[in-house]
Amino acid sequence: xxFASKFLAVIQNLDIHLANTMKVIVVGVAILFFLVCMIIxxxxxxxxxxxxxxxxxxxxxxxxxxxxxxxxxxxxxLSTCSNSADFLSMSDEDECSDVKKHNYKVQxxxxxxxxxxxxxxxxxxxxxxxxxxxxxxxxxxxxELTGNLKxxxxxxxxxxxxxxTVIEALDLPTQHFSQPADFFIRVKLFVSLRxxxxxxxxxxxxxxxxTRNPCFGNQFSCFIEKDDYKKATLKLEAxxxxxxxxxxxxGEVCMPFSNLELPNTVEFCEKLQKVQKEVVGEILVSLKxxxxxxxxxxxxxxxxxxxxxxxxDTGIYTRVDFYVNQHKVKHQKTPVKPKSETTVFNEVILFTxxxxxxxxxMIITSVYEISLSQDSARHLLGRAYVxxxxxxxxxxxxxxxxxxxxxxxKWHPLLI
Length: 416
Known about the structure:
The protein has helices at residues 2-13, 20-66, 68-80, 90-116, 226-229, 395-402, and strands spanning 131-132, 137-140, 148-156, 161-170, 182-192, 197-204, 208-209, 215-223, 232-240, 247-256, 266-271, 279-290, 295-305, 314-324, 327-333, 337-338, 342-352, 361-371, 379-387, 408-415. By secondary structure, the chain is an alpha+beta fold. It is elongated and about 135 Å long.
């Protein structure tokens, strides 16, 4: 009652004329307000204590996840110092809290490094010639180039018919000396146009297993006009087949028909040579890198293909594979467009890539042909390679990195 009497004395000194009942009501309201304030203050203090305890527990758990050996060491130190009177002093507790905060930051940094570990593995950028599609994996072989291919050719000028027989291969190289090798021969017939090569036909022989001297005996034939015959080139590629891994191309035999006369069936035995890609077209690609959003914008503008004739039932589409340090991260495809000598796409594709990984990245753009009227297997027309992990540094990629947030366009050859 001491507080109430003092409060009433103050009111009387102010000469405020109130009834006794009103005075009691005012005093009660003031006391009630004071109690509500104290309750709110106590509740806030309780919430703060719970928050601080939760933060300490989280930091301790993070430290345990970072280094299990450290957890064991801390437990040992705790048992050793349990008899010390000042072990739980305020200064030591604050020091321990600072250490836990530091370890928590280190743990976050380690998690970020682990996320990027996939992209920064040891690799050889000079020998990077990776080609990937839905149905196969292909790389250029690194083994010593040896072996010969035996085949026969004949051309009937009256019927304009070319006949090829793949007889056998001799002393083919193997990728793994301790494992048996499986081989097949891929035959490609090209015709030289004004600017590009046009692939007329492609055939594959049967797969012969467990021998370095496979015998095939496969026969192929096609019709080719006399004018196109003089501009034609035949390629026979030796492949090391692996059903569950990458298919390796070992070498090729190139046979131009410009000065080749075939009055009768002629048999050849040619040595394997290093594979040379043929330019079958061009693709106009625009690149733009957005460092703030960490986005790579790839715009496929136009595709030029060396077509002998425009078939309205044939369409083409483009597939873009995005690689970081030889690991495929993502791929996207464009809609199918009717095939013509110049096909316009104007399709924008976005990929997410960090600043630290952009220099280790590259894109492989593959152009496929497909029938519009019926369901049929796709046919690869050519591929273009753009990026910083090519055998020779790509000036288009460097121009993009030097002109951030600005689109940079360039024509790239389509190779096959």
